[in-house]
Design goal:
This protein has 157 residues and is α+β, with helices and mostly antiparallel strands. The chain has 2 domains: 85 residues, no CATH class; 52 residues, no CATH class. Helix content is 15%, strand content 20%. The chain contains 1 helix and 6 strands. The two termini are 28 Å apart. The chain binds zinc ion (ZN). Zinc ion (ZN) binds next to loops.
């Protein structure tokens, strides 16, 4: 991406068009707040296995008459968003100090967006990165104990 093409305002996130029924969503929360699988059409998913009908390619005995698929165009937009996000994450990793010293954190200018700061933290067996521009790049990584991360770029011999 050329310098002057970098977006300033974030990366619009399209509809999360997966293989699930389009009425299905999953809300994360604690055990007491009644979160979990939800249906936007108010079909109860509380019974064990009820959410099977919402999954991609459900079995014939998990039939929901209200099921609706995402369109091919919606799924394409979601896929392109995911592909672009993976590319931004790769660019972000390439912009980090290599390797990041253990138990440190910091930030560098984000290579993907105009004015964004890319925050990073490294601890034993893990690391996390997050740009402060909406939907730009963020990820957590498991790292083998003792390994350098990111790996030092190859020196030209
Ligand atoms: Zn960014």
């Amino acid at each position: 991406m050329a310098e002057n093409d970098k977006p300033r305002t974030g990366f619009p996130r399209p509809l999360r068009a997966t293989g699930h029924c389009r009425h299905y969503r999953y809300e994360r929360g604690d055990l007491l707040s009644g979160t979990g699988p939800c249906c936007a059409r108010e079909v109860s998913l509380r019974k064990l296995g009820a959410a099977l009908a919402c999954m991609p390619t459900p079995a014939a005995d998990a039939y929901c008459p209200l099921r609706q698929e995402y369109t091919a165009a919606e799924r394409q937009m979601w896929k392109e968003f995911g592909d672009a996000l993976h590319h931004r994450i790769a660019q972000a990793i390439a912009a980090l100090p290599a390797p990041i010293p253990l138990n440190t954190s910091g930030h560098v200018p984000c290579p993907n967006c105009e004015g964004g700061e890319l925050y990073y933290a490294r601890w034993d067996r893990g690391a996390a990165i997050q740009c402060n521009t909406e939907n730009c790049a963020g990820a957590r990584f498991s790292i083998e104990r003792g390994a350098d991360w990111p790996a030092k770029p190859e020196e030209d011999a």
